[in-house]
Design a protein that fits this description.
The structure holds two protein chains of two kinds.
Chain A lengths: L1 H5 L21 H13 L6 E2 L16 H6 L4 E3 L4 H11 L3 E3 L6 H12 L4 E4 L10 E10 H6 L11 E6 L6 H10 L8 E4 L17 H9 L6 E2 L13 E3 L2 E5 L4 E4 L5
Parallel strand pairs in A: 1-2, 2-3, 5-6, 6-7, 7-8
Antiparallel strand pairs in A: 3-9, 4-11, 5-10, 10-11
Helix pairs in contact in A: 7-8
Chain B lengths: L2 H9 L6 E2 L12 H6 L4 E3 L3 H12 L3 E3 L9 E4 L1 E4 L2 E10 H6 L11 E8 L4 H13 L8 E8 L11 H9 L6 E3 L10 E3 L2 E5 L4 E4 L1
Parallel strand pairs in B: 1-2, 2-3, 6-7, 7-8, 8-9
Antiparallel strand pairs in B: 3-10, 4-12, 5-9, 6-11, 11-12
Helix pairs in contact in B: 5-6
Classes of the chains: A alpha/beta, B alpha/beta.
């Protein structure tokens, strides 16, 4: 909150932000009420998630979509917060910010730029064996890979004309998730893939399993005839760069760059 | 056993049953004509649920969820009452992870079914919570008449900020407004139970009758 105040904002904490119910920050009803209060409050200009948002997938069907349409405002977060980004983008086209605030460095600076400035932002990729050359334009959609799979058959249409952004800690079921996306037809008409950090280890994973995300992305997505730009610095890493979602972007896998409009609504 | 080996087994007239450790990859190129021409039971848990659900949907094949020899006749299994009540229907389902992974990607309808849920721990309680949330949000459990909860391997003693597996299961299954029978001897390392046959779930008396 100090960081936000330092940007000249007046941060307010949700009523139930410090609650706890099991591994979640309070009951579904209370967390949803906080979120909808913020979506409806004309004085609130952005919503910033305090943590990863465990249990967010449970409340996505109760969001006040009319309030979002009437007064769109970006949500900043990642990990399970990707569920909010996906639900609200699918229903209303809302733009958002994949990332966080308060860890300092380029993470905070990229978030500030996305929220305050109107100039496009460019993310530069580190060299990756996974990159498949090409160029694409499209709407940036996605975030945490597990969250994308939460919406198969459950509210996410085919991503015709989109660039799918995927990141996530090591997951024993990465191949299964990509298989599901392909089998469900989600990736029909996809323009390209922007791949972020895949190296983190989910602390809840009993063992990482045989599916190496890099390998299965290459196997499943490498033959679709669209570019893949991997090694992008967004995702579950300490110095992540914030990524705008729901905005138009140019992916240049030759140059290793992803240039996107900011997330100002 | 991969998809090629499974197809060879499906086509082999000398085989009476197949013990399978399957996954989603096993579905690629499955020989459905061979299944229809010579249906034979496939026994397994975990990722084999992918194969059970696919072949039930495509061919009406009865699969066997469990390990070991198939027991003839009607099965009477005792569990623990979670939500009392009585329901009848076709027993369908299996391992939660694969069921969730097939949502929007070929999961058969469970309308009118008794849902069997078992599991294996590959991640924490949050994963079970995501899986059940996805099934329910997608409407995949619409029309389910009762839930038979079997064994979830690897969750003994797992507590995350005060919640156990039972807390996560109860939190979702109790919202379905159908009878729920827990702690049944079905699942990983348990004797096989047929999937795709008529069953009576008496959660009040804590008995599941299958076949």
């Amino acid at each position: 909150m100090q960081t936000l105040a330092g940007w000249g904002l007046r941060p307010e904490l949700g009523k139930h932000a410090l609650d706890q119910r099991g591994f979640m920050a309070g009951s579904d009803e209370d967390r949803l009420a906080d979120l909808n209060d913020a979506l409806r409050d004309p004085g609130v200009r952005a919503i910033v998630a305090a943590t990863g948002g465990a249990g967010t997938y449970r409340i996505v069907d109760g969001l006040d979509l009319a309030a979002v349409r009437a007064d769109p405002k970006p949500i900043v977060g990642f990990s399970d917060i990707s569920n909010l980004h996906l639900a609200l983008w699918a229903a209303t086209g809302l733009a958002g910010v994949h990332g966080c605030v308060g860890t300092g460095g380029r993470t905070d600076e990229s978030c500030r730029r996305l929220l305050f400035e109107t100039e496009p932002i460019t993310l530069s990729a580190e060299p990756s064996e996974l990159t498949i050359p090409g160029r694409a334009t499209g709407t940036l959609v996605g975030g945490c890979a597990g969250a994308v799979s939460n919406f198969l058959g459950a509210g996410l249409p085919r991503l015709d004309g989109a660039i799918l952004c995927l990141e996530g800690p090591q997951n024993p079921h990465f191949d299964r998730m990509l298989w599901g996306m392909l089998r469900a037809g989600l990736l029909d008409g996809i323009r390209g893939f922007a791949i972020g950090d895949l190296t983190g280890l989910d602390p809840s994973v009993a063992e990482p399993g045989p599916d190496q995300a890099m390998t299965v992305i290459r196997e499943r997505l490498g033959g679709l005839g669209v570019p893949i730009l991997a090694g992008l610095p967004f995702g579950h890493r300490e110095d992540q760069v914030c990524l705008p979602l729901g905005v138009e972007a140019k992916l240049d896998a030759y140059a290793g760059s992803l240039t996107a409009d900011p997330a100002v609504c | 056993m991969n998809a090629v080996q499974l197809n060879e087994a499906l086509r082999d007239p000398t085989l009476q049953a197949i013990a399978l450790d399957g996954d989603h990859r096993t579905l690629e190129g499955l020989d459905l004509d061979a299944v229809r021409a010579n249906p034979k039971p496939i026994v397994g848990t975990g990722g084999t649920t992918f194969v059970h659900m696919e072949l039930w949907r495509e061919c009406g094949l009865v699969g066997y969820h469990g390990a070991g020899e198939i027991r003839p006749g009607r099965l009477q299994l005792t569990g623990e009452t979670a939500v009392p009540g009585r329901a009848e229907g076709v027993l369908l389902g299996g391992s939660l992870g694969p069921l969730r992974a097939m949502v929007g990607a070929g999961l058969p309808s469970f309308d009118g079914a008794i849902l069997l849920l078992t599991g294996e721990r590959t991640q924490g309680l949050g994963q079970v919570d995501r899986q059940l949330t996805h099934l329910i949000r997608a409407g995949a459990l619409n029309g389910v008449r009762g839930v038979a909860v079997g064994h979830f391997a690897g969750f003994d003693g797992v507590v995350d900020r005060g919640w156990s597996l039972d807390d996560v299961l109860t939190d979702h299954l109790n919202t379905l407004d159908v009878p729920v029978l827990g702690n049944l001897p079905i699942g990983p390392g348990r004797p096989p139970v047929p999937i795709g046959v008529h069953a009576i779930l008496d959660a009040t008396e804590a008995v599941l009758s299958v076949g």
